[in-house]
## 1
Amino acid sequence: MEQTRSRQRGDQAPSRPPRRIIVGISGASGALYGVRALQMLDAAGIETHLVVTRSAHLTLAQELEMQPRDLKQWAGVVHNINDIGASIASGSFRTCGMIIAPCSIRSLSEIVSGVTSSLLTRAADVVLKERRRLVLMVRETPLHLGHLRTMTAAAEMGAVIMPPVPALYARPDSIESMVSHSVGRALDLFDVETDAVVRWEGLARRAPGPGAGDADDGPPSTS
Ligand SMILES: Cc1cc2nc3c(=O)[nH]c(=O)nc-3n(C[C@H](O)[C@H](O)[C@H](O)COP(=O)(O)O)c2cc1C
């Protein structure tokens, strides 16, 4: 009713934010998570804004034999890590939010402290202050109490802490499918539909209990 009345008064309905997501790749192990996020968002027709830290140059090279320029083919806009005047450094530039995949402890800590020394952490800070979605695929192990407290603080500030933990129930048959599933679940948080997620529909068959030897019993299936 209220909407109808305001339209009759000639008011504009609030515009929907553009389907635009910031992708940050920091220097934790798992650069492939960031690359897959870019590829999947590109395939879904979402405009991406990519920012890569200097340490991530090392992990891209070490883990994937890639350079940041190789990512341009999937990114809408590539921002320089030092360009603190970039569009994504301002809250007036509307986005659906940001995913940092993978997220190092250093970047996590900068975001929580608010001492944002790069465009990646500044963009994350902006996403939080504008109450937009921030997904942090934090990767470190084992974790000391300081790491855990910093993650707690980030969650209290509104971020989603989503370590890249493999979903073995989906029975990945390769590193690629394991990573795609995790990234697909992260993109679920932005309501981006991908075909990478094996969605759980319940145990198709009863898993064998200890000592159960029935040849018909098999492991649970998700297919
Ligand atoms: C090959 C490699 C793997 C690394 N893995 C991790 C990791 O899993 N988690 C982490 O927090 N830091 C990791 N680091 C260390 C970070 O790169 C380092 O703390 C850096 O300062 C992070 O900066 P950034 O957040 O600006 O990318 C790794 C470094 C290298 C070279």
Note: The chain has a mean pLDDT of 89.
## 2
Amino acid sequence: MMKWFWRLFERVELLSHSQPRVNSWLLQMKDEKGAKNIYHYFCYCGQEFRLKTHKSMDEVESLKCPFCANDYFKDAVAFADMKSTKIWKQFAWQRSLCEDEHSWNITLKYEIPVVNSQTQEIDFRDEKLLNIQLQKDGLQAFKVAHHSKIHFKYSLYMNDKSMLLKELLTEDAQKHLYEYLLLHRTQNIEWIDEGRIVLLSLSQKLKYISYFLKNSHLKEHEFFYWKMDAILADSSEYKTQEEMLAFVSNHRKEKSIKKRLYKGYEEAMKHKAYHPYSDYVFARVIDNTDLLAQLYDIYPAIKEHLFTDNTFTVAREFLLFLKEHYAEKQIVRFFCIDIQNETEYKNRLLLWRDTLQLLRTRGMFAALHEHFTKQKLTVQMLHDEVSRVSHLLSYEYAQKEEFEYEDIYLNTSQQYRGFEFKLPQTVQELSLWAKDLRNCMLGYAKRVHEQTSVIYGVFKEGTLLYAIELRGVKIVQSLGKYNAKIDEDDMQIIREWRDSNFTIK
Ligand SMILES: [Zn+2]
């Protein structure tokens, strides 16, 4: 058999035999004179052989490995090129898993032969495909770092269909990372029963793990189906579902209330997930037991959409405000009948949520106290009234000259490494800066008034060089003259100034 093979391909040179590889490669080179092609084959069985010929790549492609009969060799040059989208018949990779104090890590990689341009010898080079990380505190869950364009360009032809490499790699990495971390658990997730999540999709399983890593005080399966990120941080002393429900219901002790709360909870869990914001807000606003019970009975799918992470606190304040004008009974009617309308509930929920968004503007409650006129309590009427007050408020801001700032901004250090950071005191000052920098900063006056943004002017030796916009403590915009980008060294100093003045969460 072997003899037959060598007779057939007389110019095939048999090279050394090494360890099996995960992929078979074909690397095309020129001989010393540059006349002939050298085709160097690396078979996954470990066999290496090469062929010197005038033939082109197409003509030699069907060469078989003399030992294992494999005839699929990927062209290493074309593979490394990554310029075009391609479907490969076979491609395999290797994994490495590791963990340190802070995270679990998986890296997928492959090795590919390349010609060393100095020595003209062939080296195998490791190429990273993908790295996925899970922080042990759950804060950064499954951060994906793509290392290779291969993800987006290449597919694999498997089981009669082509699969995007990106999907295959991500799934493979997630699956192995998940299995690894279950075997190497931290204390926080030791209690997790794999049997209860076996039916979840892979990405759900990973979310599940991260959720409990992040909320390490919660150790019951059902919490995964509680949708209330914004409350969780404030409720870390409550560890069981029962305690959490007591917290959500404002520790109301009346038996009838508890019963309805649990019933509503069970309904919600049957429905999909429990969204506690409604129960949380209502329990803090409505005193009458029977009326509160009616609110607990609102259909879960509607309750879910009444309040969000961003609106539940203003909602609570707003309902307390409404109680100054309306009886509790009217407020309960508003939710149970006006919003929970069989045919109109979708539109009414949208209007209600829009109303809450308007209330998030700074100064809205003061404006309501001043301008609100009592309406018939319907979603439409309430929305229109809040919207009217909101317009009045923007008008007042448009007239207002002086900016007000929260203490955290007033207390920032002005001098930092040769720069001076100043807050504009008036609209007039901001408009002069905008003129100096030739940008549209003046348009931000409303946002500064509303305190959704804070602008700092960055000076050097008395000259305004840049302006930066902060939202919370995050720099969301940083601009030089004519909106030009800030010099990277200066930007570094600006970031350091920010870090030294604000704690970043
Ligand atoms: Zn072989």
Note: The two ends are 69 Å apart (CA to CA).
## 3
Amino acid sequence: MKNAVNKTISGIIEIARGMATIMKHFFRPSITLEYPEKKPDLPPRFRGRLALLTNSDGTDACIGCKSCVKVCPCVDLIQIETSKDPETKKIVVEQFTIDIGRCIFCGNCTEICPKNAIVSTDEFELADYSRESLVFDKKALTLDPEKSQRLRDKKEKEVK
Ligand code: SF4
Ligand code: SF4
């Protein structure tokens, strides 16, 4: 009989403890998110999908120096083909490919770029059905001048 009473009392205490924990968390703001209906607030330096910027006149900001290729820890992830303009003698970037499926988003390429031509965007929903569709060519990577300027402004604010 005494044993049954003790068990009942300890059961009541445990229920009270459980209820106290529920009440403690009930009034706290939720830390989970109803994704994908609600999107997370990303930190300012979030490193998402890479993109190539253009100048205000629509020309490539990239000068084809290939520093990003050298600094990327994943071999052959960035591939760049260049040629030399016979008239201006300037390097022309013919092809620029990034295999985003293999990218580890370390940001090395964006840090090393002397022209800030390659940047991280806040795009993170990159899932796809094939690895091939995650290989982005120059056209897919290049942003128009307006978007490019927006990203430049954002990057400048981060530095300040
Ligand atoms: S973020 Fe890192 S892994 Fe991805 S392309 Fe740039 S250097 Fe390579
Ligand atoms: S993106 Fe930057 S680092 Fe890479 S080739 Fe172009 S200018 Fe050079």
Note: Residues 62-68, 80, 112-113, 115, 117-118 surround iron/sulfur cluster (ligand 2) (CB under 6 Å).
## 4
Amino acid sequence: MASLTIRKLDDALKAYLRLRSAKNGRSVEEEVRVILRELADAGTEPTEALGAGSLAVTAPAPRAASAAGGPKVTLIIGGGIAAYKALDLIRRLKERHIQVRCVLTKAAQQFVTPLAASALSHERVYTDLFDAESEFDAGHIRLARDCDLIVVAPATADLMAKMAQGHADDLATATLLAANRPILLAPAMNPLMWNNPATGRNVLQLRRDGVHTVGPNAGEMAEAGEAGVGRMAEPTEIAAAADRMLRPPQPRPLAGKRVLITAGPTHEAIDPVRYIANRSSGKQGFAIAAAARAAGAEVVLVTGPVELDDPQGIAVMRVESARDMLHRVEAALPVDVAIFAAAVADWRVASEGSQKLKKTAAGMPPLQLVENPDILATISKLKEKRPPLVIGFAAETEHLIENAKAKFARKGCDWIVANDVSPATGVMGGDRNTVHLLSREGKDVTVDSWPVMTKEEVATALVSRIARQVGTGS
Ligand SMILES: Cc1cc2nc3c(=O)[nH]c(=O)nc-3n(C[C@H](O)[C@H](O)[C@H](O)COP(=O)(O)O)c2cc1C
């Protein structure tokens, strides 16, 4: 039987096979096999099956969705000479882990091909408003909404005029009119077009409508001997502007501050296999650590045994007992803020069995308890290296405020976060917390009661309170 060399097929057929295989996520060879099988099954003529008439297809259908994740941009490429730079822009956006889906206007296709945009974006490229394949689920609405930002580059004078007027007679303008996402325009045109009062009016209108712009820059034009303002901003500049809109810089009020947090329970050994513990999950302390890190602090997290992963960018020290915890806390000093959210066991057994304790006829082994070191009080009362802000947690099951006030008076810390951990609240191990922040105003204790929040929300609120007290305000 004769063998088929795809390389030797004519160009149009090769292009069609490439598009069809990309659309179906198969290799070209596999695609040919499928076509031949279909032919055999249906008794169809090869020319029909290879669909010479379909060569007008402008872009491959979707490939498998990008596994990379990250924010999504719909990039509308307008019909200007700078359209070729939009191909580089796709790469620049993808370098920043931004997913890109392209729409090409009819005029844009005079400058760049959908195939090139598709190859660079690894996505299907959209060109037609009346595309049966994408319109069955209102493609232009999806393009407008299923993204985090719409970038138009180059934004031609014509596209901006249509946007300012609310036209929607092609896929690009219909997508822009249906958008409920931020829009970033990178205008590009001849300086005379840019300086034309009509363009000026349209740009002003669009800015009033909340549309963002990057560029145009001054420089040489494609037209020989022409220069002025109208050059499209460079792809790196546009990608950076898009990135700023997608991931606006977060305020970092604790930048330069070192924050120590304890979390979780402690385990106090009875013998090599048994221990005294409590139901603390560590979630609140870990959430505070993450919030302090997000606020720019250098965070040291000392945690008892918990089933939580290390939060990103945080030095985590895992300990077992209250004595280990105190040791690690002391070693971490000096810090600007210390937050003691751990549920440290108050007692441990006086003498830990070196072997597993056995049942005996004599009855229960006597478990003599002794007090553990009080980490909060120890650090609060330090003469040297006392952190400027020491915050304790009071976990109570009854008389919450009364007990928390008593603890506040005893410990010598600056604030106490009181929370009711009685079983009905579901706080221990749960995801929500209701807290009361006790602080001092002169000799008076003030109690600030917060509404029920997730532990992350409590953490964010506490960290912003801390930032007001010790933050740099940056
Ligand atoms: C060679 C050539 C280059 C062009 N370059 C630009 C340009 O840089 N900026 C612009 O606004 N229009 C430019 N135009 C005009 C647009 O292509 C034209 O206004 C078109 O209708 C824009 O369609 P679109 O906005 O739907 O992409 C150019 C036209 C040609 C023929």
Note: The chain has two domains: 72-246, 258-349+366-470.
